[in-house]
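Dear Dr. H.,

I hope your travels went smoothly. While you were away I took the liberty of generating a structure for the chain from your last submission, since the lab meeting agenda had it listed for discussion. I wanted you to have the full record in hand beforehand rather than looking at slides cold. The sequence, exactly as received, is reproduced here:
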Amino acid sequence: MDVAKLKLWAAEGSCAAQAILGLRYLFGDKGVEVDYKEAHRLLSAAAEQGASRAIVNLGDMYAAGLGTPRDMAKAIQLYERVAHVEFFAAVALGRIYSEGVMFQSIRSARRSGMRSRLRSKDELSIVRN
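The corresponding predicted structure, in token form, is as follows:
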């Protein structure tokens, strides 16, 4: 999908465009340079409109401190908001609550060349607290 069109639609308030473009900024994908602040802004806008996947990705950003100071309380709040419909939010909460396990930053996933999806098993790094 054309980045210029996504930017136009996102500016017009399209939830889907905000979520897609937010992920592209988060991972630096398809002609878009990594920009965590812009990813945070766009995913926040999509989350305000109720996009559950954007809410999960925003929670990941708070957990990792990307585009915003690290804030586990905010991450947990976001995960809890959508855990009933988003499997990955439920998994994140399960790790946080049952094992005290946290995600390493998305940066490590990016450095290892895994840009397509934060959600895959191979892309999640865990660290015991």
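Two observations you may find useful: The longest helix spans residues 15-27. The CA atoms of residues 94 and 101 lie 9 Å apart.

With kind regards,
E. W.
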